[in-house]
Amino acid sequence: MSERPTTPLLDKVNSPHDLKGLSDADLKRLADELRAEMIWTVSQTGGHFGAGLGVVEMTVALHAIFDTPRDKLIWDVSHQCYPHKILTGRREQMLTIRQKDGLSGFTKRSESAYDPFGAAHSSTSISAALGFAVARDLGGDSDTGHGDAIAVIGDGAMSGGMAFEAMNNAGHLGKRLIVILNDNEMSIAPPTGAMSSYLSRLYAGAPFQEFKAAAKGAVSLLPEPFQEGARRAKELLKSATVGGTLFEELGFSYVGPIDGHDMESLLSVLRTVKSRADGPILIHAITKKGKGYSEHRADRGHATAKFNIATGEQVKAPSNAPSYTKVFAQSLIAEAEDDPKIVAVTAAMPDGTGLDLFAERFPSRCFDVGIAEQHGVTFAAGMAAGGLKPFAAIYSTFLQRGYDQIVHDVAIQRLPVRFAIDRAGLVGADGCTHAGSYDISYMTNLPGMVVMAAADEAELRHMVRTALEIDDRPSAFRFPRGEGVGVELPERGTALEIGKGRMISEGSRVAILNFGTRLKEVQEAAETLTARGITPTIADARFAKPLDEELILQLVRHHEALITVEEGAVGGFGSHVAQLLAEKGVFDTGIKYRSMVLPDIFIDQASPRDMYAIAGMNAEDIVAKVLTTLGVEVLSQRA
Question: Which of 80, 287, 505, 596 lies at 20 to 30 Å from 533 by C-alpha?
């Protein structure tokens, strides 16, 4: 285990107030200690890494100059908030981050007064900060008071349309608002799109020293007769080197670009802005993601397991089966080898969705649209209308952001967009913000939508093929994060009959109808029940829409109880089964029906197994549900 670094200055910091008496030189040394502390902490716990290393100096400078929590500091996405947490009284809790009953990996209002707005999705910070600014000016109540509103947003998050909607509104309202554009040239993946190219042009060869001097307030400190000429010179300089800025056209004063690791520049700029800003202002800071440790890694250390500081080697459990994500990617590549019309869309998550592998093989047929799920969905719809076969690979939690487009642009027009919904169900360390809890409900409600869930990795391969062959309506197939269950994989997928489930094993009294990867838990539960005298029938639905009505009605005809199991919220698969049974009059005959779904709560981060224990959906919970449904309190063990 690596030794904890020596941090004499940081040891004296219990809150941002302790930064107020430090000299600028001390603040620079504090930043160095903070970076070393963060590297050590994440080496012990794993977690988001690169983004936090890139904002160490910025975090120190912001807390030194501004009066948090009275001043509202809002981190976009907030995977870069680890240094912020260390400085705001949570240093000793950092070894619990992203663990059960520990700190969140993101900002969280219930965790600290220094987290005024929770975030784990992108491009929300400017909207929230503008809301705080308006609340300040209209006398809103806040336990910590109201001061400045500061949004720190990455260049990757700037690819999200919501950021520009907020800037447009902020420029119109003219409220005092501070936006810091943390430009590290990448989000999770390398940057894409015109916005990235624009930012590159802004700082390519930019005269940092001249901007630095201007940012220090040199113009405002000149005698009044000279100020106008200096302003004109500054504008001429900006016009000659960067051609003006889009941000100024949106109504923001623009400062930058500045070196986001130069503490002297940061402190000077922030002091000037704090004392003189009278409307919306954007500070453009250039940083390096992973600064000081992982800037040379391809992902700059976006997220990491525990690791050895000296070697960088990550501590990961050996894999016994391929991940669902990799099986999806390999299956799609195999189909695309034979079908040139297959294209793939990702929203800034090529590695997370496996489409980086697809892009290596078919670079002209893979599209990373940036952090823009709404655009990505409609873009895929346009390609489908144009005769291509798009697969939109988007995490369940992020697909929520494009729901209007799924309804309006895809479903109503019955366009054959294939939604590959990764990270379905409960996902572990990222907690409730990233849980894929709702896609079954929001997809099955749409007329014409085909909704599938893979019970194992072989089923996923079949569902990729099935979705490919559905060419008259949209379809979706969901699969979880992590490894498969180790079943034998076919070379290629075989198209499933639409709306048809499968029998897994036959028993009596109670039937368990599974949808998704709880099948393994259902089978473990069945073994326990069989040992206690009850052998349930097990069926795998495969489809939540259309339902296999014949299979479901057969199960209720031959059993006294039916239990459905799904990794989703109420309103999904089980609700559709209940609707079918009600319409067919099955409840009139006394069938016992139960639906096991995720509870009506947000479940905080823990291991997936612990999260499903809280949800009551592990094998032992399924056993208990069967026994209580049948009215059995105690069954003697079989000899």
Answer: 596
